[in-house]
Amino acid sequence: MKKTNIAFFGTSNKSTPILEVLHSSFNLALCVTKTNRIVGRSQEEESTAVKEWTQEKNISVFEIEKMRDSEPTLLKELVRLGIDMIIVADFSFMVPDLILKEFENRIINIHFSLLPKYRGANPVQATIINGDTKTGITFLQMVKELDAGDIVFQVPYELNGTETSGELYETLFDLAAQELPNVITKYLKGKLTPQKQDPTKAILYYSPSHPKSTYIYKEDAKINWQEKPHEIEQKIRAFNPWPIAWTTLGEMEHAEICQLKPSIKKALNIKIHKAIITKEGLLEPILVQVEGKKQTDWKSFKNGYCLR
Fold first, then answer.
1. Is the pLDDT at 1 greater than 60, yes or no?
2. Tens digits of per-residue pLDDT, 277-290?
3. Torsion-angle region of residue 43: left (phi > 0), alpha (psi -120 to 50) or beta?
4. Are 249 and 268 contacting, i.e. CB atoms less than 8 angstroms apart?
5. Contacts of 17 (CB under 8 A, 6+ apart)
6. Start-to-end C-alpha separation, the chain
7. How many beta carbons lie within 10 A of that of residue 214, not counting itself?
8. Residues 6 or more apart from 303 whose CB is under 8 A from it?
9. Which of 7, 169, 202, 245 is the most exposed place for a label (fewest CB within 10 A)?
10. Other C-beta atoms within 10 Å of 67: how many?
11. pLDDT tens for each residue of 69-112
12. Whole-structure pTM over 0.85, yes or no?
C-alpha cells in the first residue's frame, strides 16, 4: 500500500521528533523552512535545524526568505510531488491562500495550547506567564484566520510549575510526535470529526510593548518590580530561553533585592535566567548575568556587587 506523501512546514530547532516520526511512518517528501540567516559578529550563515536534518536524511528541502516571492514555486513543487497532506509546526510564516485552497482540509497545524485559548505566536509563554496549571496540544485544520480552524484532536498536559518556555516547548514537541501518526492515519480514514471552535472563548496574548502584536519583544521581558514575586518568577521562566527577563542594578537595589556596594555603577543591565520563590514568598534570583559577562550564580553575584 502506497505510503502517504507528507510535506512538513517548520523552522523550530525542536522539530526533530516530529520530523523523525513523519519520516519513519510516512513518505516525508518535502520540508519547507527558512533560508539561512546571518548571525553573530563574524556574520556566519546559520541554517535552521529543519534544513540540517534534511541534509542528514537526504530529503528535499524548500527554503523561504519571503513567502510572497516563493508562493507560486512552492505550490508547483507540492503538486509535482503529489503531496497528500501538509503538517505545520512553528513555521514563522503565514501559509498563503493559494496553498490553503489547493490543500483545503489537508493541512494540519500543530498548536501548543488547548485552543481556543492562546491563539497566536506565543501560546507556551502565555501559559507560563498566566500561571496556568494545564496546557496541551491542538491538531487543527489550517484556515486563513489565525489558529481559528476546526479542531481535529487535542492532548492535555499537566504542568509542574517549574518549566521554562524552552523546556515546555521541547516536552510538547515530543508529545506531538508521539500522537501525530495516529492523528494523521485516523484523520485520513475519516475517523476523526473536526469540531468548530467557539470564537467567543478565543484568547490571544498581546505584547505589552507592542499591543497589536502577538509576538514577544525584548522590551516585554523588562521586570516590573511592582508586580508580585510569583508573577515575576513566572515571567522569568516564560522568557527563558528568549529574550531573558532583565532589569538594572539600580532597580534591583530599589526593589531591595540587593544593596549595592558604593563603588558599583547602577547603569548595568542584569539578565535573570532563573529564580525561585522562597518559603517567605520572596523572589530569589538563582542564575544572573551582568551585561557583557557570563552567567553566574546569585551568591557569586552578591559577593561582587552587593554589600554583605
1. no
2. 999 999 999 999 99
3. left
4. yes
5. 173, 174, 176, 177
6. 73
7. 18
8. none
9. 202
10. 16
11. 999 999 999 999 999 999 999 998 999 999 999 999 999 999 99
12. yes
C-alpha cell at position 154: 487535542
Per DSSP, the residues of 194-233 read -B---GGG--BPPPSSSTT-SS--GGGGB--TTS-HHHHH
Q: Rounded distance, CA 286 to CA 3, Å?
A: 50
Q: What is the CA radius of gyration of the chain?
A: 22
Residue listed under C-alpha cell 553573530: 40
CA–CA distance, 273 with 240 (Å, rounded to integer): 6
Q: Which residues of 223-243 are buried (b: 16+ CB within 10 A; e: fewer)?
A: beeeeebebbbbbbbbbbeee
Angle between helices 16-25 and 165-188 (to 10 degrees): 20
Residue with cell string 501559559 = 127
Task: Specify which residues 271 forms β-bridges with.
Answer: 246, 289
All three cell numbers of 268, joined, read: 548595568
Q: DSSP secondary-structure letter at 285?
A: E
Query: In the block, which residue shows the cell 499537566?
Result: 158
